[in-house]
Amino acid sequence: MTAQAEPTMTHPVDGVGLFVYSVSATSLNWENTMSRPVYVIASEIRSDWKKVSPYALPYLQAMATLGDIREKFYEDSGKSVVMYFLANAGSWRGEVARRVKKELNAMLNS
Hints:
The chain has helices at 25-28, 38-48, 57-63, 78-87, 95-109; strands spanning 6-9, 19-22, 72-73, 76-77. By secondary structure, it is α+β, with helices and mostly antiparallel strands.
């Protein structure tokens, strides 16, 4: 099964927005052995977390540009971007938050 990804504009901050591709993870039937791209996870976070913490927002925006945590975001590693996001995402709660945070932690520990 293939899914069509449509580019969408993320919420602009200070007049700056990022284009990300929004793809439903369930429509792609991800295998447990295959990690979802970080930008797909960031899109899911954006959809679920209605009022993103201003402390987590820059890291979420950076995650929207990453395919994998081994990539770099300017001079920062993707791994550090995800770590800083998790450190600042304590106010994001709920079932989706628990599942996604668990997924991101598994990516960091693999």
